[in-house]
Design brief:
Elements: E1 7-11, H1 15-28, E2 38-43, H2 45-55, E3 62-66, H3 82-88, E4 90-94, E5 97-103, E6 108-113, E7 116-121, E8 127-133, E9 136-150, H4 158-161, E10 173-183, E11 190-193, E12 198-202, E13 210-214, E14 217-219, E15 222-229, E16 235-239, H5 245-253
Length: about 260
């Protein structure tokens, strides 16, 4: 990053975020994302994910400031001292999941997920799914509300709410977590190597339809979903040293 980094600011539609955007642009100016040295996202975690999906391919580091309801991926908001904070920030490199979903109509839909890919029942009927790992069937039939695969960074989100494990950054593992499993009743999921290819097959897609969601991108009426860690895409998030992502994940595991 240069001495005076070129910054591209983005803000969620929230009033507080829009006000912060005006303040920061007045101080630091505004640059096009393609020519910027760093991207600054103002909002909550949902807006951070939107920013990563829209601009992650640029390969620019992203610094977030919390101006939303959830801010696990964000730093505290302050209008002063931004340049000093950017120079002192610690990077966290994230590698997203790639989802390829095949629908009942035969369409193939691809998407990235920085937090998780989740499969959920679309009706009152429980989902019936089989699970393959690297081409080998590991679970003939999971009957549940759904199932998800989470990255380490996303393991504190939906995965944790579904009683999945929190995964330390840099361990190159992903979480496979059932959502309200009915059968096998005692199956609690698995921790897998990050390069594992996970494939779900919907066993009764017409009577028991299932949707697949990569972060916020939903694909309905899927019959097969394949998930693998991306080999050629990474994003770098920047965090204040006193509250970096690794420390937040540790704190989450010891909170009441």
């Amino acid at each position: 990053m240069t001495e005076s980094p070129r910054i591209a600011f983005f803000a969620s539609p929230a009033e507080d975020a829009a006000h912060a955007l005006d303040e920061l642009v007045a101080i630091h100016g505004q640059h096009d994302p393609a020519s910027a040295d760093v991207l600054v996202a103002l909002g909550g975690d949902g807006f951070m994910l939107q920013t990563l999906h829209r601009h992650g391919a640029l390969g620019k580091p992203v610094y977030g400031m919390k101006l939303g309801s959830v801010g696990f991926l964000m730093n505290h908001h302050r209008s002063d001292g931004l340049l000093e904070r950017l120079h002192a920030a610690e990077p966290a490199v994230l590698r997203p999941l790639e989802m390829v979903a095949v629908t009942e109509s035969g369409a193939t839909v691809g998407s990235l997920a920085y937090n998780e890919v989740s499969l959920l029942r679309q009706t009152r009927q429980a989902a019936h799914l089989s699970i393959e790992l690297n081409g080998q069937v590991r679970l003939d039939e999971l009957i549940s509300d759904g199932v998800l695969v989470a990255t380490a960074a996303g393991s504190t989100a939906y995965n944790f709410s579904a009683h999945g494990p929190i995964l330390p950054l840099g361990t190159n593992v992903i979480a496979l977590t059932p959502i309200a499993a009915f059968r096998p009743r005692r199956w609690r999921g698995a921790v897998l190597k990050a390069d594992t290819e996970v494939r779900f097959r919907v066993l009764d897609p017409y009577k028991r339809p299932v949707s697949a969601t990569a972060d916020s991108h939903e694909v309905r009426d899927v019959v097969e979903v394949t998930i693998r860690e991306s080999q050629d895409r990474t994003v770098t998030l920047l965090f204040d040293p006193e509250h970096n992502l690794e420390e937040r994940m540790l704190a989450e595991q010891f909170s009441s």
